[in-house]
Amino acid sequence: MTDYFFCILKNEDSDSHVEWENACKKFDVKYDIVDLTSERWYEEATKRDYDCYLLRPSGRLSVYKQMYDERIYIIGKVLGKMLYPSYEEVIIHENKKMLAYWLKAKGIPHIETHIFYKKDEAVDFLNNSDYPIVGKTSIGSSGEGVFFLQNKKQALDYVKKAFTVGIRRRVGPGLRQGKFIERGFKWI
Question: pTM for this structure?
């Protein structure tokens, strides 16, 4: 057995810690599991002098992604603790905006990306765009939150919705769409 003591940081998914837990058991490493979504996360995460914090970044809802990123910032950057993966890796995980900023800053070629916080800037962009274009929510994986906007009307409707009620992305199997079994076999 090693002398290492790890802290596994669980996210909002009930089984987000399981793979890290199995790895620690396999290699006979001591560990604690801390629920990073808990109100007492800080007290629990700092109760020992852990050698490393093992992470499973959040990526389903932006509220949990933001909470996760903020809390590991405190652990990794403010407290100076070792994180795996690193804070820099986690901050771009499942965050299309942050990834676009990071790729640009690093000079890494990538798809041209425009991020708008002002509706009038988004509308100006759309008025001068060729179609189709792709709209994306910031958080989402495996194509979740990706919208193909075929024309200016669709794009303007998308922007109007984004700056009022927000863009909802599909999460889960889409049971209301029907034909669940047929769609499942197609996916497989």
Answer: 0.73
